[in-house]
Amino acid sequence: MHLLPALAATLSPPVMQARTWLEGVNFPPERPLLNLSQAAPVAPPPPELQDAMRDALRDPATHLYGPVLGLPELRDALARNIRNHYGGQIAANQIAITSGCNQAFCAAIASLAGPGDAVILPTPWYFNHAMWLQMQGIDATTLPCGSDMLPDPDLAATLITPATRAIVLVTPNNPTGVEYPPALIAAFRDLARTRGLALIIDETYRDFHSQDGAPHTLFTDPDWDDTLIHLYSFSKSFRLTGHRVGALATNPARLAQIEKFLDTVTICPTALGQRAALWGLEHLGDWLAGERLEILHRRAALQDGFAHLSEWGLKGCGAYFGYVAHPFAMDAAELAQKLVTTASLLVLPGSMFTPTDDPKGARHLRIAFANADCDGIAELTQRLGKLDL
Asked: Using alpha carbons only, how large is the chain's radius of gyration in Å?
């Protein structure tokens, strides 16, 4: 059987791999499984949004192909939302709706780079970004973050070569949870602009940022779209993960090329998911604000819990994530599997977010607390404190 070598060499989906660790394991009633592996809410959309989706199903247009770049009314509503959130100017013709934010990233890369080109990724990285680059024969140039889990634009500048096409940032970050300061984001924009690169910023978790108001000022630059490619997701904000609705903002000329990619891959985003996202933008502002406060409470609970675990180190915490340095001699991949049977905990090892030759991955774990309330987080830290491995 012939397989494309670049695809065969790409790592397997980490979350799916971690789920296999649960096979055949029986969890005692007094210590049920805490699944902290995936950054996706398992609760359904709020009831009023479910009602709106049922109404949309009765509209014959919901079941037809739609525009490749998304419903015009959703593109317009998201442009208005971005203007309100960040300030500055953005129009509907600078936005594409995609089948999830992963597809938005793939579409952006398809317009920028191909085999033999390079894209700079801070490490630890979001594994699907690295996977897509590897599949396409694009070099993922690693930019190691410092002990504060922040990437350094000066270090990034030394990594740029004639093959480099873009720099990628994820903020709030997956896997570390760290929120990049506005000045740091602006510095990366300036670097990318000066060197003729694109700056791709994935803000999937924007709506759970701890800062009130705009997390950066990039959209206030009237020429933002000459450098910035902005990615967003409705999946986490409105609990629409299974409906796959994301978005991409850039200049109209690039969108004309991205349209070719999207038409070839999915033809159009799902109409039901888009209508749900539109209804959410128009009606769920207060509900989403409450969701954000709950996530901030969980963040505080995780910080408080690890403050009492002196041998552990909470390196980053925000959005849905905590990134922790563990105190054991074993590799994080081995530790993560042992935690399933010894503590009924499912978390991901840092090695799933780093290149195979990066020793830092072996020292860290990612905790995704989207589906753990404050009591569950307290239970997590209590179990970690009792470990005897």
From this structure: 21
Report whether pLDDT(39) > 90. Answer: no
Closest CA to 157 of 124, 193, 130: 193
Dihedral pair phi/psi, residue 96, rounded to 5°: -120, 140
Helix (H, G, I), strand (E, B) or coil at 322: strand
Percent of the chain with pLDDT over 70: 100
Residues 6+ apart with CB under 8 A from 160: 120, 195, 197
Query: Could you tell me where the beta strands, DSSP code E, fall in the chain?
Result: 34-35, 95-98, 118-123, 139-144, 164-170, 198-202, 228-233, 246-249, 313-318, 321-325, 345-346, 348-349, 364-368
d(CA 18, CA 259) in angstroms, rounded, equals 35
Mean pLDDT of 359-379: 94
> From CA 188, how far away is CA 218, in angstroms rounded?
11
Distance spanning both ends of the chain, measured CA to CA: 43
d(CA 193, CA 33): 47
CB of 132 within 8 A of CB of 112? no
Residue-wise pLDDT for 275-327, tens only, equals 999 999 999 999 999 999 999 999 999 999 999 999 999 999 999 999 999 99
Give residue for tokens 């604000």: 289
Please report the domains of the chain, with CATH numbers, ordered by start residue: 5-44+287-385 (3.90.1150.10), 64-283 (3.40.640.10)
